[in-house]
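HOLO CASE FILE
Compound: zinc ion
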Amino acid sequence: MKTTMDGIQEYCFAAEKTLGKLAKWLRILGFDTFYSPDLSGKQLIDADLKRILLTRTRKIRDLTVSKKCIFIVSNDPFEQLREVIQAAGIIRRDILPFSRCIRCNALIRRVSKDFVRTMVPEYVWESHDTFRMCALCRRIYWSGSHTRRSRDIIESLFV
Ligand SMILES: [Zn+2]
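Model generated. Tokens follow.
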């Protein structure tokens, strides 16, 4: 992880409250993304998070001349994701898909099948062998059809 001169970590983001879906997708790609549905771009600047600010607010963009900020133009979450990838210079090998909890941004770790026996629906437990758990909220992840769809979407971002 590289840190720029002004202390902002490369590929660490803070998304303002209007960019919830974008924040979720950045987490799916594995990027450390701070997001709270209550916090505006202005509040994120005031919090001085040492992260690249993602904003759709023109006024905020003009306020952040000295700080790193990506101004998002599109209304569509996937187009927004493309905008971030392009502006931040992210390439395929920078991403680590499905390594982070989409709900709370914490890293998720592999857990044994036995461990999750009573924590996932019976049919899921019987049909999967690989499970991961969020260290913070203890949400369990497994590779279902949603993941396959997500993988296709991710690959389409880097062609
Ligand atoms: Zn979590």
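CASE NOTES: The first strand starts at residue 13 and ends at 15. The chain has two domains: 13-94, 108-157.
CLOSED: yes
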